């Protein structure tokens, strides 16, 4: 079969890297503001890992197919590998490194992952935890099937799903109980 | 030794680092001045690289260099005695042996520029007329190289005389490990010394292989792998990313990070090879096996002869007087295969356990009962007694927990709404092995202990199990024990493969700890020691302190060392497989029962429930051990229903070469799991009787599911994965 | 990924003029299709116009009872939207069955309508592909085509349209609102996506420089219920191998306003008009469902790997109709 390779026309028309201005953008990562100069094509996942040393954000596929790069963008979980860094300007970004409280006390989700042994190699874990924290802000019900569906955007090749589900369920149900008691107080 | 606490779960030693993102994996390491590399892979499967036009690439600002097969310093091969992913180092010559072979490497200031540069390279090929990519055609044309065969009795004659007979052929596709962490490394040189932050299941082997590749003394290579994001066999041996990172670093004189991308992972870092296996079984009227023949062929690459020894397990799992097994390979234009979780056994048991189910149907005997009748009293293949064999107990307990007695044997008879339910059973097994290890345990002035061994934790809980052992023997708190692994310069430890780490290292840790305590005792009873004049035997270590057996004051490790102004005392332990392997045969056994649900209208096939009972000797940590089996069951679901790396027959290129098309299970695919680990110490495999748990959880899962599918639908699917189209119509 | 200019538009006019300035320009919304394909070097714009700041991210109730969904509304927000869950249940179900929670938080309605094929030969950037490289051929024909289309194909392309959301939008007879420097127009959904024919590279009835600003959904038919069913190997996080969105009402025991649209089996979101006609005015029964399902799949052209899609889609239609009926009856 004949190979079709580079489309010369499109390449000729494309700007060279000198022509493309680097822009200075301010990113707010885990509460810390920092100005970085990026090319438009720089991907948020790489920026976070290389310039903010947030290496808990992992590159498992680089194409939105695994969830290892999950971060919170203004509180919503997204895949950092499918965002340009320039798109995150002015947003509040939170990575696994900023999930625990300032004094180092673990987030309930992190603690639940520890208590349920919800990982093996740990490579997907940061993405799982951040994803699960993001899930708490979404309208999922607490039954196991719904929770499993809510976490289906995070692959775990070690297959620690059973324990991850247990951890996530714990936190979700505790949250529901807290909400219920708050409603009663009102 | 007091082993009461062993087996009880403890939170993972490395857990905190893993849930906070502080655990650093290979490419998480960043060195001052680090450059980035990106590979260009071959688009053809067979031919020659004629030219590389790098003009456009080199013109990009930020590109440091381009290495390729026509212009790269030559590297050395590793000796046969060392296992490596591919014998041929990258860029050895301009031959192309498979699609996806790395042909060039672009090194640049940033990842973006390196990737862009690789996309701009113009590779000119000469494609070969003769390409072998079609496994089926090669088999038809008999292009099989026989590699192994053995037999006992008269299998052919016995088959002819059998009361019930099965003759069927089973297939398994190319499987990809898909560890979530890609193969990648950061490498740099300190003078003549090479340091690599790597992702490997064997720091020791990796550093030896790198030393050979670069022509360095072993002492000049340091491989670090403190955290490994999954291996499953894919990172047992040296693959090109570590080599190329080191090579690029040598050329540009800066640290270099290089990682395969996910697509590259599908072609250039090993896979479980495709297999075809013919099973011929015969049994007498009572269901006793009288003949078993298992002939297997697997695909291998042009450059390496990798054998997936599928039939070995068939020779010993069941009792049978007439057995013959054989193994062959077919060479294709694909990358070199490599072990993947439960190599041999995993595809082998797919065939054997499916065939047994077919035999049970033929004989009208319950498939559980058929297995019980054929449990092996001794290992007939090795002609040795079992060290211990709890196969029967596993089968009975699994069936009882699962509710097997409620099974209506009639196909398609169990229904619920629009779903038809099927129940299947299969045995699982893995040969237990030990290798050798050296461990040092230091008791420190600070009152802590430090354990050092050049092995690694790939998620199996090595950190935790090691600390647990020392805690057990010293009484020190878990947090006071530092575990140093994941560095090739530590005392030589084993490969994280074949479920061997625990069985291998645990006895060495015990010995090292005992020796360190003994050294401390020597100091304690010496002239100016805190227990001067006492008899060593009258002292013991409790709660991390020395005290007399008859009571009285206790002295901390620090106090004892202070008396000599020493910083620490050490003990060294060494373990290697004893002659036990000559006297006994060691295997882990188990049984899986699976429930599947098939909804024909929706084309939906799901595994809803799995019960597993497994004997793998003593369980050192119930949490980490169970977790591994849960994960193995999930992987088994993937193998049975989802996973297949498909190659385009015309070009030899993988088509499903990413995580959206090569489907690994997600959380919603995870069945309800009921697991029991028998936790019976193996009487002969070293100090604690632990045999390891990594593989045995997986090996029989797929056939249990396949047998359940048959029970539900009456369709016997012999080629994995089982897909909706196989069951429709 | 090659370099490109990046500009941010905050009004429709700005977006349109920024994009017409350069031939090779592309709008950017959630980025989940575009950035994926930029990395693969399959899409290579010289300029990327970010339209996320253009004010089009609300779901507005229209006077006729329908809704106008802003182009930038996130897939997850739309899926969980009260009105959508109540009146356009199939749309909510389709959205929730697509991609992953993270991707749905990023992906927009316009981006989803415009998403590109998942054919491996389109994405690999080196096989012959008429969609990517017009005139080069179609490697999927004679290749591995398990996920490819059986309806609406041509000898030049058999790539499946991958969207779930669009299948529901087709069933609800949505209109795509596009605005350009020349004005605004509403394109009926079944005219929006083009069949591959001999120009598979032309995918939409939208002109260069035109921006999708929203999707208009007509009011729901009185008493109608809808459902979306999706079939795939993995239990989640996978594109459809086949899917069906159906909707109908019962008037005096007879089917009215029947709508059937299919996903995963066709080169565009597929309306099964003949199947709808067959249902219309008849009493619901499984025989009728079977008949309609057979009509829907008539004329399918299969490849060796994807013939199963015909019975699969038929089964889904039959089941979806049965569920829709249960829902209709539960309403009363
Ligand atoms: C791993 C993975 C799995 C997925 N699984 C599914 C699935 O199961 N089902 C499913 O339906 N989808 C699935 N998707 C696809 C996903 O739904 C689409 O990528 C998404 O909807 C695109 O929206 P976006 O806003 O991110 O688009 P973008 O990537 O921003 O844009 C996509 C295209 O639309 C154009 N565009 C964007 N906005 C406008 C506008 N206002 N006007 C005109 N043109 C515009 C862009 O120029 C681009 O060409 C999956 C994607 C991934 C990566
Ligand atoms: S790295 Fe982003 S989803 Fe896999
Ligand atoms: S813990 Fe290893 S991939 Fe999830």
Explain the overall architecture:
The complex is a heterotrimer of chains A (186), B (729) and C (332). Chain A is of the alpha+beta class and 186 residues long. Chain A is built from six helices and five strands. With 729 residues, chain B is an alpha+beta fold. In chain B, the strands form six sheets. Chain B has a seven-stranded mixed sheet. A five-stranded mixed sheet of chain B has the order 7-15-14-13-8, sandwiched between helices. In chain B, a hairpin with a 5-residue loop joins strand 13 (275-283) and strand 14 (289-300). The model of chain B is unreliable at 1-5 (pLDDT under 50). Chain C is an alpha+beta fold. Among the domains of chain C are: 5-50, Uridine Diphospho-n-acetylenolpyruvylglucosamine Reductase, domain 2 (2-Layer Sandwich); 225-331, CO dehydrogenase flavoprotein, C-terminal domain (Enolase-like, domain 1, 2-Layer Sandwich). Chain C has a five-stranded antiparallel sheet with strand order 4-5-8-6-7. The longest helix of chain C has 23 residues, at 309-331. The mean pLDDT of chain C is 97. The chains are: A alpha+beta (186), B alpha+beta (729), C alpha+beta (332). At the A-C interface, helix 1, strand 4, helix 4 and helix 5 of A face helix 2 and helix 6 of C.
